[in-house]
Specification:
By secondary structure, this protein is an alpha/beta fold. It is built from 6 helices and 7 strands. It comes from Halorientalis brevis.
Length: 225
């Protein structure tokens, strides 16, 4: 129970700080961006953007930062990602992968060796697997396991971006961005820094830097396959 006491004390501090910040969004929301992040305790979904504004970011989370949902009619854009695009006028979607992703690791292991997981986890990995199989096949042979996983993290982000852009449910004027959140010193020694790896399907680093000079220093990839 002490953990709950501690959590509620932190919530009290939160409520004190945010007392007046909900005035303009109590009855409706028009978030500027929808993000889909990996459900991982190390991925600070709002703090990574320095967000302290209710109504600014529509945050979704699941293992593997998936935008894909399986329906009776086949694969579709997940409803939690699609909702703000469909109903609140949100025009920017950001897929947030992260270094050392456990879901990508488990999917890699499932593809290469086979795994046994509880049904709920198996379902989630099953949504990732068909989108990552080609990436696993394309991995260079000289990579160690850690390097392979972090390249697949980028590949997974690319596949989720592509799924959004190819869906008839997502209007063509919605910008879809792919990024990687790094807390393992993979891209730099600035833990928690975000690297942009994909903008509306473009993944070539030089092209991205030429097209987006304002964020040139934040554009990096490990793998241009």
């Amino acid at each position: 129970m002490q953990l709950l006491v501690d959590l509620l004390e932190r919530n009290w501090e939160h409520a004190e700080a945010f007392q007046d910040r909900f005035d303009s969004v109590q009855d409706a929301q028009e978030p500027d961006v929808v993000t889909v992040c990996c459900s991982d305790s190390r991925v600070l979904q709002d703090q990574m953007w320095g967000n302290e504004d209710p109504g600014h970011i529509f945050t979704c989370g699941n293992i593997g930062n998936r935008v894909v949902q399986r329906t009776a009619a086949g694969e579709a854009v997940s409803g939690d990602v699609l909702y703000p695009i469909e109903h609140t006028g949100t025009k920017t979607a950001v897929v947030v992968g992260h270094t050392g992703c456990g879901a990508v690791t488990a999917t890699y292991d499932e593809i290469t060796d086979g795994l046994s997981e509880p049904a709920g986890i198996e379902h989630c990995l099953g949504l990732l697997k068909p989108h990552l199989e080609a990436g696993v096949d394309a991995l260079p042979d000289d990579l160690d396991r850690t390097e392979a996983i972090n390249r697949l993290v980028e590949y997974n982000v690319d596949r989720q971006v592509a799924f959004l852009r190819e869906s008839d449910d997502v209007p063509a004027d919605v910008d879809v961005i792919g990024v990687v959140y790094d807390f393992q010193d993979v891209y730099s020694d600035r833990r928690g820094e975000i690297q942009v790896i994909n903008v509306n399907g473009e993944t070539a680093v030089k092209t991205l830097r030429d097209d987006h000079p304002a964020i040139e220093s934040r554009i990096e990839r490990l793998w241009e396959y």
